[in-house]
């Protein structure tokens, strides 16, 4: 029988792959053009309104000091290196990847709550040298596309097992190529980050699971996400193949406005395997980038039988209004 032997979690923000402070501040400047920023109070507004509603401006000024940004950038890079080295040492037979697709592959013509890819391979898009004006080069990203293997056998088994377990999952066997309608093509950025930053040149066979975290009205609840993780572990252990399987969550934590209170609630629930606390997460705050916390919740359920070996939380602010991305990294084994 197969075994779920290890788990990982990692944020995948562009802030992880550009320099600080200049690159982070450039991202902060772009936030000023965003009319859909959701504050920790739940209000949707533009940047100036968000700034005027903050009552912690003095604290945020400390967070965006040059030395703080540089320190947190270095802390992020150490955590990425730690996870990459761990994945290389573990060398699992298969890696299940849990991420969200942001209209890169799945669109509003068909947006399932959960979709499992079970084709034979996927294309990982390369990335241009430049991250954007003022942001510098992308750290660790290849400029060329590459084709990587998928464990279609495990993907098929997961679909069949989950259907029998009353999870109505969608399935896909091929990804669109680049064209005028889908400019990116290939696998989405949540998964591309894992290949570029954590796998480097090694191509472990994977099973991509796309969770609809972003787009209402069919986002899975936190409790359902945790239960799905448990069911995925059960499915792996019911697979009659002698394979060592690992699972990873890609995304989160809170962004595009950092919400440390929400992040700590979620991480405490996952760390302590507290399903009640996870179920009580305020769903009205699991919006926009915050919604990717669901990916972590799923992996928390899948690794419930494992011990938490490492967890690091790094809130990374990039503007006076508190925009940015809270990074998190974890290992279970």
Q: What is the strand and helix layout of this fold?
A:
Elements: E1 3-10, H1 22-31, E2 37-38, E3 44-45, H2 47-53, H3 57-63, H4 66-90, E4 94-99, E5 114-117, E6 121-124, E7 130-132, E8 136-137, E9 146-149, H5 152-164, E10 170-172, H6 189-199, E11 206-211, H7 222-237, E12 244-250, H8 260-271, H9 275-279, H10 293-302, E13 308-317, E14 324-332
Parallel strand pairs: 1-12, 4-11, 4-12, 5-10
Antiparallel strand pairs: 1-14, 2-3, 5-11, 6-9, 7-8, 13-14
**SSE topology string:** EHEEHHHEEEEEEHEHEHEHHHEE
CA radius of gyration: 19 Å
Which sequence of strands runs across the widest sheet?
10-5-11-4-12-1-14-13
- Assembly type of the shown chains? single chain
From the 3D coordinates, which CATH architecture would you assign?
A: 3-Layer(aba) Sandwich
* Helix vs. strand class: alpha/beta
Average pLDDT taken over every residue:
93
Range of helix content? 25-40%
Shape: globular
